[in-house]
Each structure stands twice: as C-alpha cells, then as structure tokens.
Amino acid sequence: MAALSFSRLAPVFSALGLDDCASLGLIHAQALQNAHVPTFSPDLPALLVDVTDVEALRMILLNNYPPQHLLRVLSVDGTVRELPLAEWSDTDSGSVFIPARERGHAFETFQEIIAHLRAPDGCPWDRKQTHQSLRQHLIEEAYEVIDAIDAADPPKLAEEFGDVLLQIFLHAQIGYEADEYRLVDVVKGINDKIIRRHPHVFAETIVDGEGQVLTNWEAIKKEERKQNGEEEKGILDGVPRALPGLHLALEYQERAARVGFDWPEVDGVLDKIREEIDEVRQSQNQAELADELGDLFFVLVNLARWKKVDAEAALQAANRKFKRRFGHIEKRARELGRALPEMSLEEMDALWDEAKAQGL
Predict the structure, then answer these.
(1) What's the CATH code of the domain at 150?
(2) Checking DSSP bridges between strand 25-28 and strand 46-51, what pairing results, if any?
C-alpha cells in the first residue's frame, strides 16, 4: 500500500477542490479490500485514494449511503466528474470524494445527543433516569420491534429499532456517568465475543452444519467462564429467567437437546401431549390442574420446536386472529341492533364462522 504523503495528495486535493476542507476522513482504498461496510463516519466527508475495484467499493458504500448520493470522482487521466453513487463504474478509478450525509447518520452523533440530554443543561426527565427506571421501557420497546416484525412493516421496524437503540445509548451514558463502563466498552466487548465465538469464520475451525456451531458456542462459553474464574454453571443457568414463559421453555428445551436430552422422534412428543392431556383431565384440585397445565404448555412448546414453529409467534398470531374474528362478531351485532350479552352462543358462533369464511 503506497504511503499517503501530503506531496502526493496535494494535487488530488486541488483537483477535487478540498483545499479548504475543515475535516476529512482519508482512506486508502486497499484498506477496504475485505470490508463489508465503510470504516468511516457518514456524518463526515471522506476521500478514498488509489481506487481500482470500483464495483466492490460501491457495494461497501451502499451500506451507509443512498444510491443517489453524489460523489466527486477524479479519474487517473485527471478528469473530475460528479455523479451518483449508483452510476459510479469501473471506468472511474483513481480518487473519489464522498461528501458527508445530512448530520445524524453516525453513531457518534447520536451518542452526543444522548450525552446532551443527560447533561446539566439537558432534559429533566432524561437526567433522572436510572438503569432500573428504564428497565420497563427497554422491555416495551423490544416488544414493539416484535410487533413491527410480525406486521411485516419495514419502515416501522426501522423506527422501532431506533427506539431500542435509544435505550442502549441511555444505559451506556448512565454507565459512563457512574464510572461503570463506556459505550466503546460495550462495543468492544461484543466485538471480541462475536469473533471469539465464531472461530469457524474468523479462525481456522471447521464446522459441519449449524448443530456443530451451537455445540462449539456452548464449549467456548464454558471455557470463558473458566478463564474468568466463574463457578461451573449448568447448561440452563445462563438463560434469563425474565424471558416470557413460552420463550423460556423453548430455550431450556433447545439447550437440553444440544447434549442429547431429547426424544429421538417427534412421535415421543405427541405421545407426551396425550399423556399430559389425560393428566389434566384427572386433576383433583386447582394446584394439580395448574401443575398439569404447565406441563402441557411445556410439551406443546416442544412440539413447536420439533416442527420448527416459533411457539411465541404462533400464539401471538392466534391472539391476533381471535381479536379480528371477535371484532367481526361485535361489528355484526351492532349492525343487527343486538347487544352481545343478549345473544346466544349459537348466534355468536354463526358470526364467528362468518368471519372465518371471510378470511379474518
């Protein structure tokens, strides 16, 4: 990689009109050779020099810049052209100036906004928040993300991810103020963890399918705990107990299955469901009934796992379907001038069947 000396760059700066540029990211194109995303902030202008593989660089830049983002390209013959990123082709090699996007696209910019909110001249509400006071907000925002996923609404999903990001940055700023950790520590920690736990991607380990990836993951976690001086934990001990019940059941079952504690065939699960239904019927009191219903729910989640169905998503879909169909019953009752409490179950069932026939 050639050195980026000032004498070498001066003609490039002059040709591209960058002599008075107050801030600039300077990157040798070869430094992005194996990258998938840009290594510089979209909130600041950047200059790429010694560009050769335009196709690869364009795909990298499209991760942070829209296709219509205007570039200033200096070709090897000295020609300067301004063109959209999407039109940058292999014939335009040399150097390229990438103007900054509208401020607000970089993590650092958002981090500054959150720090300002928490500053003495910031927002009274944000300044009083703690890890504990924000706990419920983080849970709610995560569920709103799930709603957007289930609704197949990409714009809404992007918005809800932003709300989750807000919670993360708030917690990071609170951690910094308490001298607990900094946002860069959070990023560094997860960077190291992901690389460490994917030796089949970032090292020489060879795996044979997803199952071996998960097995290696658990083995690496176990070694990490050992190196950190932590006590030996059971396979299920690392699962957050605050997870929703169906999700928690699935996590327990998946982890147990990784070490072979599982039925060899799905027929064993179906037999267990029949057994649990019989035990529900035989329950003698509320305590027994609650216990047996819990077992039934647990084994139903296991059936969903075997059939590769997300039990939580399936139940949520059933909830939404019930809401739609019951809403149809209410609507039709109003049209008929009837009050629901006055209608018979047979009448309401007929309206339910009507909703089903309409695909609700």
Answers:
(1) 1.10.287.1080
(2) parallel
